[in-house]
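Example 228.
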Amino acid sequence: MRILIVEDEDDIALAVKRGLEADGFAVDTADNGVDGLWLAQNNPYAAIVLDIMLPGMNGYKVCATLRQEQNWTPILMLTAKDGSLDEAEGLDTGADDYLTKPFSYVVLLARIRALLRRSDRTLSQQTAELAVGDVRFDQRTRQVCRGETEVELSPRALAVLEYLMLRAGEVVTKRDILENVWDHAFEGDPNIVEVYISRIRQALDAAFDRKAIETVRGAGYRFASDGG
Ligand code: CA
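Predicted structure in complex with calcium ion:
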């Protein structure tokens, strides 16, 4: 899942980006409102973290413009300290939630996950669990089980698996996976995807003598809709 951070304070942007990436998200950043708006208009983000005081165009304007264009991507606004007025204005322009600086990363992550849960219609409203066959992926705890057995995977591998499961039954290309799991600016070797697919297969398929992930020659991969 891709998240956009629009924040002109480099240290905050970088810290949030690193944290989210370590938790398996793909992250794009913009350091001004104009670029932030353009990225938001042209990419399918799962959520946007939007600072208010930005060069070029402020966060209120970015948010209001997106909503006018019927773009309902969940937006978490970052407000300045003691900004009770900011908060009201932020929600008024169509932000979904706000967070006052300085904030702890743990709180930010919890808020983002809450926004994703609320917005993701593919999830059950209460459980935030993906289930395909006997494979269950709890998106809150990032815990995966095959049957009753827990499957251990790194955050990045979990993000790849999550994407495959969200599109279970469909052929997913390496490019789809890269664009949704790595960030927009990824320019490394696309074959990195194979490395993660191989790890997931070992942990989720080989270990159970099952086959959930099929290679579709020349096209990509398909997560079996019955869980393999
Ligand atoms: Ca700022």
